[in-house]
Amino acid sequence: MPTPTDAGRPPLGPRHWPTWCGIGAMALLARLPWSWQRALGRALGALLRRALRARREVAARNLALCFPDLDPAARTRLLREHFAALGIGLFEFARAWWGSVAPLRRGLTLEGLEHLQAAHAAGRGVIVVSGHFTTLEVCGRLLCDHVPLAGMYRPHAEPAMEWAVKRGRLRYAAAMFTKQELRPAVKHLKAGGLLWYAPDQDPSRGEAVFVPFFGRPAHSLTSTHQLARLSGAAVLAFAHQRRADGSYHLRLSPAFADFPSADPAADTARVMAAIEDMARAAPAQYLWIHRRFKRQPDGVRLYD
Known about the structure:
Elements: H1 17-29, H2 34-51, H3 53-66, H4 72-98, H5 102-105, E1 109-111, H6 113-121, E2 126-129, H7 136-143, E3 149-153, H8 159-169, E4 176-178, H9 182-190, E5 194-197, E6 208-213, E7 216-221, H10 223-231, E8 234-242, E9 248-252, H11 264-281
Parallel strand pairs: 1-9, 2-5, 2-8, 3-4, 3-5
Antiparallel strand pairs: 6-7, 8-9
Helix pairs in contact: 2-4, 3-4, 4-7, 10-11
């Protein structure tokens, strides 16, 4: 059984060969010049916007729900920008896992590292909370240049892809925990470790509550509260975005005061408010193709 710091043995049976071919192609594309990847990514995003009709409609619906004050033309532009960011993000994922991020370090700005260092110096573990942005993987890798960050993630269903991605992530992450590996993650935090976590998608299982997100009820995991309560870790927000010139800005906020409280819903609302702030700062780069509001407390369907 693979450990949080070991990808284990790769699955090599014939049924995995098509996946290995795809992984090989992605690894080759990860080595293209960064300027080429950005241009190809925008073209790929335009193709995906036309080909993935269901996802395009979900993203358009999310933008209408979250930005009702934007006129239709502005939302259409934002939708196009989102798919362009999504296409570039696919190249960023491949580069983070299997390529070099040396070109991406040029022009990088990192703000607020002292907040993480202060929380860590107090002898506590630290939960670094972010959201599902197209930049999440590459910016997580860039942050690992400065701190020994572990990650929590949802494993891939295809074993070959899971092995390749975990092995790629372990090139830079201190450890990788699946969302089912709660006890090892808590142990890591109790030992003073740092853990990146993104709790902003509508969960299929786990303890969750409805809290506001862009002014609408969003079914959200209380897991940040639970991890902090079980481990004694501090919690701080990690915002990141890709600038127009291809450089990156990373920002770490001060640790949440009086967290966790006795109220899981209130703590979850604070976390979602922080992620909303991140999405408003880089709206094209948030993952709008996810059905964030698929569950509603009144049972109303917001998606076709």
